[in-house]
Amino acid sequence: MGNRSLTEADHALLSKPLVPTVSEHTQTQDYSRSFLDDSNTQSASELHGSPQGQFGDKALTNTNRFIPLANNNPGMQHEMGLDPSMRRRREEWAERGAAKIIKDVVDPTTGELTKHVVKMGIKDFKFGEQLGDGSYSSVVLATARESGKKYAVKVLSKEYLIRQKKVKYVTVEKLALQKLNGTKGIIRLFFTFQDEASLYFLLEYAPHGDFLGLIKKYGSLNEICARYYASQIIDAVDSLHSIGIIHRDIKPENILLDKDMKVKLTDFGTAKILPEQPSNAADGKPCFDLYAKSKSFVGTAEYVSPELLNDSYTDSRCDIWAFGCILYQMLAGKPPFKAANEYLTFQKVMKIQYAFTAGFPQIVKDLVKKLLVRDPNDRLAIEQIKAHVFFDKINFEDGSVWDGDPPEIQSYKISAEAMKPPPKVSENDTTSKLGNLQLSSRSHLDNTPQEPAMTSQDQSVISMTAATAAFNKEYTGQPKMGNKLSTFSRSVSGNIGREKAQRKVSNDHTYVPPTSVSTTLKGKDNRSRSSDNLRSYLLQNMGEHALLMKDVEISAQNLESVVPDYRSSIDVGPPTDNSRKFHKRVLVITNLGRALVFTKERALKMRKENELELQFELKLNEVERMIYRNDQLLEIDAPKTIFIRCKERSVLMKIWKVINSEVNVEPNVASPKRDHKMFDKFISQKSQNTKKKNQAPPVPESNRLVNGLPGSCISKASEKGELNTKRPTSLQTRSSSNYSKLLAKSTQMRKSITRTNE
Ligand SMILES: Nc1ncnc2c1ncn2[C@@H]1O[C@H](COP(=O)(O)OP(=O)(O)OP(=O)(O)O)[C@@H](O)[C@H]1O
C-alpha cells in the first residue's frame, strides 16, 4: 500500500462492502429488496487490523489490478499454499465482503415459498476471458456456478483506487447505476461485492462488445443502422437526464451492445448526479437543474465539448455534443475531431474544426451541424433532436425504439437518396412531434426555454435551396474573379453565418427554379461573357431542385492563380475555424452529381479571402461514359456533356471513382500514355505529399507532447509510441486545476515551437 493516509471516503469504501443494489427476477430469485442490511459494516478499528494490508500488498505487488483468473475451482486452487492466518482472513472476507441476496426457495416437500438470505461473492463465479480494460478497472466474463448465467464483472483494485484517488468514481458509478436500475439502454448492475483486494461490480453481460468495435468492423454504418442506434443512444441519454444524471463520457467504447444488439450505456464513473430541485410539477416528477455548471475536467478528448475547453464548464449538453460526435462517427467511420494527440484534438474541438467526409448523407449532416455547435445554447435539445427529420419514422413515445429487431449491419454507401436535401417538414408537423414528446415535462426546458422557432428541417431547406438560388442569382450576373468577386464571394463565419448570408439572397424558403437563367446563359457564347477563365453556363433546370450546368470548366491556370495552394482536398465541410474565414477548398460530387467546388483566394495585401463556388448537377443514371481527355480534363458524357478541368489529377480520379461507384462506367483513357497505374502512382505520391504538408510542425524530442501534455508528465509506456494505437482514453485522471496548468503549459510550448518553425 502506498504511503498516503486514507481519507474518510477511502475508509468507507474499504470497510463497507458494496451491498446488493438491484433486483433480479428469476424463477428462484427475488432480489426485490436491493439493500439488505449493513450488518457487515466494519468499524474503523477493525479496518486497521484487517487483512487488507498484508494480503492486498502481496496481491498487488506486480500489478495495479487484481484480475480473477479463469478458473474452475478457485476455492481449492487458491486455498492451497495459503498459511492458516491468510486462509482465515480470506474466509472472513468471503463472509464480510459478500453480497447478500434474498432468494425465493421452494420447499420441495411442502411446495412452500420461503425467503432465504444468500451470500454471493467471488467463489460463486467462474471467471473467464477479459472483456475489456478501462482506465481504472478490468472487466472479466463471469459465469454463475449455480445458474450458469453469464455476467460481466468489473474488477477494481482497492489499492489502485486509493493510490490514484479514484474512490469517488466508484462510489458515483455505483450510485448512478443504482438510480438507473432497470432503465432501458443502461447496463444493469445486479450487485456488488468485495474481497480483500478488489471490488466487484456484477454487471449485465453485453456479449456483442462495444459500439466502437462495431463501427471499426464495418468501417461505418449506413443510415438505417445509424438511425437505429442513434435513436437508442439519444433515448438512453434522455432517460439519464430525466433522472438527473449526466454521463459526461459518452463515447463508442462506453456504448455496449447487449445480446439483442441493442444499446447499453456503461461506465458511469465520471457521471454527475444532480441534486433534486424542489418541484411544483403537477405530476410530482423530480426536477433537476440540467444546466447547472460543473467544472470537473472529465470526458475523452475526441468527444469532449468545447465549453469545457473554452470556458471550463460542462452541463448536460456535453452529452448532446458527444452524441453529435458519435452520430458523425457512425457515418464517417471516424470521430469528427481527431488528431495525432490530445492537445491537437483539443485545438480542433475548441475551434469546432471538423469536416464532413465526401458523400456524407445530407440529412445526417443537417442534424450533426446542429449538434456540433460551439455555444451549448444553440445546440439542439434532446426533444429537438428527436423531432429532427432524420428520426421521422421513429416513435420515441411508445418505447418502440427499443422493441424492433436491429437492422442488418451494413456500412454506409453513398447513394442518390442520401444526397437529397433533407425533406421539408411543415412547422405543424414538427410542432406536433415536439408536443408529443412532451416538451414541457422536461425540466431543463422548463428552466431555460430554448427557442424552437425554426426547426432544423426548415433551416436545412433554406440552406440547400438558398444556396442554389444564390448561386443562380450570382451566376447569371457577371462572375468575377479575385477581389472583384464582390457579389459572388462571401466571407463565411460558421454555418449560421453562411445560412444567414444565403437567406439574405433568397428571402423565400422555397426554391423557385430561376427560369430566366437558362435563357440568359445559354450556349457557347456565354463563355465569352465571362471576364475570366472560369466559364460556365446553365442549360436548363431539371426538376424542382436540380440545377444542371454544362461545361463547367476550371482551367488549371486559373485555379493556380485563384488558389495558389490548391491541393487535392476533396472534402466537404463548413468553414473550419472561428476566424470567419473559409479555408477549405472543397470539391464534392454527390450522387445526384451535384458538385460543389469551393476555392479560395487570399489577396495578400488585403488579407482577405474570397470564396468561389460552382455547382452543377447531373443525373448519374444518365451518365454514359467518362473519358480522361488528358490528365487534367475529365469528360463526363451524359445527355449533356460536362468537362471538368483541374490541375489535380487526383481530383479527377476521385470524381471518377465517386461517379463510377454509382454508375459503373469505366473511364476511357484518351491518351494511351496516361493509364490507371500512372494515376494511381500520382495519387499515392500526392497523398504522401499532402500528408507531409498537413502534418503538425516537428516537435523537438525534448518538447514532445504526449497525450496532449508535456512528455515529462507521461509514463514511459506512452512515450514508446503506444499512444496512437490506443483507444481514446478518458481524461478523468486529471483534476481540473492540474489539467488547466498542463494545457496552458502545452499551449505555450506549442506556440513557441510553431514560432520557431515559422
Ligand atoms: N457489461 C459488459 N459487458 C461486456 N463488456 C463490457 C461490459 N462492461 C465493460 N465492458 C468492456 O470493458 C471495457 C471497459 O469497461 P468500462 O468502460 O466500464 O471501464 P472503465 O475503467 O470505467 O473505463 P474508462 O477508461 O472508459 O473509464 C468496455 O469498453 C467494454 O469493452
From TrEMBL:
Entry binding sites for ATP: 154
Protein name, as recorded: non-specific serine/threonine protein kinase
SUPFAM superfamilies given in the database record: Protein kinase-like (PK-like)
GO biological process: cell integrity MAPK cascade; late endosome to vacuole transport via multivesicular body sorting pathway; positive regulation of cytoplasmic mRNA processing body assembly; regulation of nuclear-transcribed mRNA poly(A) tail shortening
A Pfam family annotated for this UniProt entry: Pkinase
Ranges annotated as biased composition (Polar residues): 35-45, 726-758
Keyword Ion transport: no
Keywords of this entry: ATP-binding, Kinase, Nucleotide-binding, Serine/threonine-protein kinase, Transferase
Matches recorded under SMART domains: S_TKc
Entry's family note: Belongs to the protein kinase superfamily. AGC Ser/Thr protein kinase family. PDPK1 subfamily.
UniProt-listed Enzyme Commission number(s): 2.7.11.1
